[in-house]
Write a structure and sequence with these properties.
With 173 residues, this protein is mainly α. It has a single domain, classed as Arp2/3 complex 21 kDa subunit ARPC3. It has 7 helices and 2 strands, in the order αββαααααα. It has helices spanning 3-19, 36-46, 49-64, 85-104, 108-134, 138-147, 150-172, and strands at residues 23-24, 33-34. The chain has a two-stranded antiparallel ribbon with strand order 1-2. Strand 1 and strand 2 (33-34) form a beta hairpin. Helix 4 (85-104) runs antiparallel to helix 5 (108-134). The two termini are 20 Å apart.
Length: 173
């Protein structure tokens, strides 16, 4: 990895570590609304897919060893066993799928579709884990684990797509 790629990956890891802990509790869910997905969408525009996965892996490792980078400034390996732990693992899939679509397709609708598909995969993993940890069925967990967050994530995808494309142009110059 070149020095500039390593620097960019580290910088985007830092952005994720800064944005992800910012959370808003959602009354109908045991999972909070965060800015992590927005950071992941931007990251997928700025880094290549391998770098994006590396940045997310570093973020998860930092949180697991005790840095308060998870939702609500939480930390520790136990966060992966909590109801929101599946979403943390889902971040790897969201970033990988989003990054692949963004870097393989030059047209914006395909890039947005990739971010949306990555988000759906993350939600499926997260909602499955939410259902398992709370003892309810997957279908019962969907409203609190996915449906409540989807409208805002669609807005985040569109905003990140716009900002991400602008940032890509600046980086190339």
């Amino acid at each position: 990895m070149k020095t500039k790629d390593l620097t960019r990956t580290t910088l985007m890891t830092a952005v994720l570590c800064i944005l992800a802990p910012i959370s808003i509790p959602v009354p109908v869910s045991s999972v909070a609304l965060t800015l992590a997905t927005f950071a992941l969408y931007l990251m997928a525009h700025i880094l290549n897919p391998k770098q994006t996965l590396a940045a997310v892996g570093i973020y998860l490792l930092l949180g697991a060893v005790g840095l308060p980078v998870f939702s609500g400034y939480m930390a520790g390996i136990s966060r992966f066993a909590a109801p929101g732990g599946g979403y943390l693992i889902g971040y790897l899939f969201l970033s990988g799928i989003s990054g692949w679509f963004i870097h393989e397709h030059s047209n914006v609708p395909m890039q947005v579709l990739g971010m949306f598909l990555g988000t759906l995969v993350m939600y499926c993993i997260g909602t499955f884990w939410l259902a398992y940890t709370t003892g309810i069925s997957f279908l019962s967990a969907l409203p609190a684990g996915m449906f409540v967050f989807l409208p805002l994530d669609i807005l985040k995808i569109l905003l990140a797509s716009y900002i991400g494309r602008k940032m890509q142009k600046q980086i190339k110059q």
